[in-house]
Fold each of these.
Amino acid sequence: MFHLKEEFNFYIITGNKDLFSTEPHKGIKSNEWNVSANGEQVFYFSDGHFSWKNLAALLKDTVYDCIYLNSFFSKRFTIYPLLLKKLKRIDKPIVIAPRGMLSSGALHLKSQKKNAFIGLAKLFSLYKNLIWHATSAQEEGEIKNIFGANQTIYKISNLTLPPVESPTDYSKQINEVRICCVARISKVKNIMFALEVLQTIKTGTIVFDLYGPPEEANYYKKCTEFASTLPNNITVSFKGDLQGNEVEQALKKYHLFFLPTLNENFGHAIVEAMLNGCIPLISDRTPWRNLQTQNIGWDIALNEKEKFTVAINEALQMNQPEFETTSKAVQQYALTHCMDVANIDAYKKLFS
């Protein structure tokens, strides 16, 4: 929205707390419009105030030209608006971004429930006559595979903001590496896989800090228990969630960003990590490919676990000049992408 604020007025309707959080965001007013730092109007629904009737009333009282749904399965902020459109309570165009939720990796988790919903949604034409926003050719293919080839799809990569301050501390000693991950502690993010890779590394000093809320209590427990069994040269800390304004400063402290995800349609956390100087060590299931050939990190197939071990050992052996050179190249690569004028123009066309 930062890149488009001079062209469009944005009204954002969302919940008043983060996923899995029990506390509302600080410094906001729930159930009324707030003005954000960049000028967008934001309406934060509290749990007690949200209902499809209140959502319908809010939309009726708001002047807008189209609706953008930033999820596929969200009950409140995707399914309810689609039902309102089905009931003719909404007569404006709807753009929907599935955000990777239609990938085979994502649909494999809780597959029966998700496939049953998709079947019913197709039966009742819930997703008919929508404009789709795909962030990659892969996601475009996923949409067509499920809903048919005649869908209206705009393929536009996501936009991200450059960091407020560029990293200046590139300190790096041989045989030590600081690694972070900013993601939900969940199966789709493949956190256990990351810990299993670290188990294979017996030398060097490794710090692995994970920032993000636990999605499933049992999976989180399994991860923390496994982390406690890792060799003494590895320190793993589950740091909990970060506020949005805390992420940038946190990322600047690390050499590597480790996310062997099952699927990312874009990977905002990956891009933000790169913008702040972290070298990505990721799976091959994101749009960020061929990193090794550009000397800006690693994207590795999940069935080649040993290559993740090799990558971390390579990172361990980096000295300060080597890390600084690679880190700056990573930053420039990400910065070039997030300021892509062609992408910005494509969004202007989509919303126009």
Amino acid sequence: MGGDLRRVVVASRNRGKVAELRRLLRPARWRLLELDQAPGGAELHWVEDGSSYLGNAAIKARAACAATELPSLGDDSGIEVGALGGWPGLLTARWLGEDATPAELLEGLASRVAQLPTEQRRGSFVCALVLAVPVPDQEPRLIMAEGRLEGVLLSRPRGERGFGYDPIFVPGGEQRTMAEMSQARKDEISHRGRAARRLLGKVRRSHLGGPGAA
């Protein structure tokens, strides 16, 4: 089975995430399209009711693939606080409600972390990527990968780079938050970077055709 991966739709309206994926997936030579720029993408909405990060990423990838008839990449990521039972986890982007801004989410989680003893502030960043490739008269072919990064959470943000919860996350073995690092260093160690490299490895081994498969 072949697959033309010259154009791939990113099933996300988070511009920071799209920009990061463009950097991470540059070796594949795919042209990543923002969802709203793809044919049929601007009207597309979905319900993230999966029971896992990979499940939610697959929901997004399948929906974008069906709407645009192009290969589509779904991303679902989250932050987990061990002392809070892995919360917010799958609710990372929605635990304050659908209308909460990134700044409100960051401030809200930092406030929760501040209530924890220092030794209980360990956490994880998790990213799941799912590539849905159209197959004539069949369900799309799904290629999945996941990455995880362990670290410590801060009660006060530090740094101006990155997005989301980057300003309160210090990876294990580092002194800087993700928002204080250079893009190159963040891409090297991040959960999304790890997931992207695993995904590209699986694509290379999947015998998908077209530019970007090599």
Amino acid sequence: MKKILLSHMTWLEIEKIVKKKVVVLIPVGSVEAQNTHNPIGYDYLLAESLAMKAAQNCNAIVTPTINFGYSERFIGFPGVISLKPSTLQAIFEDVLYSLVKTGFDHFLFINGHEPNKTPLLYAASRIRDTFGIIFTTIWPTELARNFGKELFENAKEVFMHGNEPSTSILKYLFPELVRIEQIEKSPLPNDNEFKNFKLSSPTTLSHEGQKVPIFLRLKDISRTGGWGEPSGDSKKGEIIFNKMVDFLISFVKKYQEMNTHI
């Protein structure tokens, strides 16, 4: 098995691979409530697993995972750890600054948590302006939903936080961490009311057919930290994960030939 972890290499080994158009995969996630049955590290566990599996089959290496993300909406559930957006942006910038100074110029963030996107985009702007290098990012959840929608008859109803396809993917990757017996049926987001308003999503009120954004913590509207009643099918999880890996390998092979200098 080839060596793919940056942290397992000596600096002499790293020096040799810098000029090989290697793509640096940077897994990013969060530590937040994922319903009553899933581990709170799901986002970074998936990002890390995806990066590790893909790197074995393409010209890529994997940095240590950035486990924490911006998870302000989840504060109130035990164990949640959230970084300020400015802190997260600074971490992204520092990691990239260090890697650019080493000589790398192809970076792909495997960002398992969508709210990390804005700090990441700010960091991308700074790195572009400082070094003239651009990079990209993928959101595994979007890939999982796209590749899994044909496997679930009720995909629109179950593809949501703490439900599916995360439960099935975890059942495949980390079955020992999933507590199916602890699943509690939770109302769907649009089944909820907040004060005297109907919710059209966890972050928006509905009024006269229009959506009005509002800041709510998940604990304000969900007792379980998730939605619905997932079943968890490891076979479906395996199919979805492998399709995600295949996509990432294909993307890396094309991305490594891209000129990332502006």
Amino acid sequence: MAPRSIWKGAISFGLVTIPVKLFTATEEKDLSFRQVHPKDMGRIKYKRVCEVCGEEVPYGEIAKGYELPDGRMVILDKEDFESLPLPTTRSVDVVQFVPGDQVDPTYFDKTYFLAADGPGTKPYVLLRDALEQTGQCALVKVALRQREALALIRPVDGVLRLHTMLWPDEVRDSEFAAPPADVTVSDAEVKMATSFIDALAGDFQPGDYSDAYRRALEQVIESKLSGLPVAEENEDKPAEAEVVDLVAALRASVEAAKKRRAEAQGGEADEAKDEKPVKKKSKAS
């Protein structure tokens, strides 16, 4: 069952208009906890209280205020936001086509699926196929939740994805995090580091990974309900030691990585051998 669309509009592709629906592409899988009073299991509630008069204010009566540096407050209501002169309120305007690898992932904020709406199917397919053939992505402007944003549209698995982006002044300068220029490494150290990378290199398969922390929390919750202790996993913790010789440490890491990969491949080979179908003997004529 498809989720509900959160926005409807149109992509302006030159003189072509593509009606589309927007769907969130991701969902949080983290466990949700409530604040409770352990004594009687009552939920903790928070009251919205005005700091001036001390009265509790209903949610529907709360306004949005922008505080100026001098302390003055400007109140903005629903009409103020709706009357903003944004040409992208219900449209996705293509401003440029750019190679996808030129956009730093740091700029990406949220990801959405774009689906054709009604008569938009054919022009949707046209834009998707054109982007695939040219290897380009569409840089667009769009207004979502009362805010204009840059976004990137790219075709993935036959569907157009829209990635909203941060504005340049929202991305911090990384210069403060750079190591001192006088810190260098030797060619031997770089060679061993690249050997370790090669030993663990492979294609990205999202299904190979899962959230071990969430799984452990679920086990703790089940244990609390059943009254049985959580089964302990026998896991060898690596000994903590100060790394003095980088080359020696990396060499050991490479050997360990190769061993793990060989064991994994051996296990897969055994599984494949076990799954081979048994040939049936043909009946004598």
